[in-house]
Amino acid sequence: MTVSILDGDALLDKKELDFFLKGNTSLEDADEPSPGTWISVGGWKDLQTLITINESLKNFINDLKDNLKLFKTWYDDERPESIDLPL
Length: 87
Prior knowledge:
globular; mainly alpha
């Protein structure tokens, strides 16, 4: 119902919704290997798509690679959803 309301109010970003529901559905491999062994192949492919969906996320992969230890610490946290995302 919420999606229908947002769509009716022209507030729904359909590319973001599609990504949220499906992730990266491409059969192609990622352009480059994951910078960390803790990032799954599917997760890395999703990040490759995510940076193209929203302008505010365009630098996320570079930020991740430049601060890999910081992101790994966040990833390993018992409840990462309860703390701020690095940077």
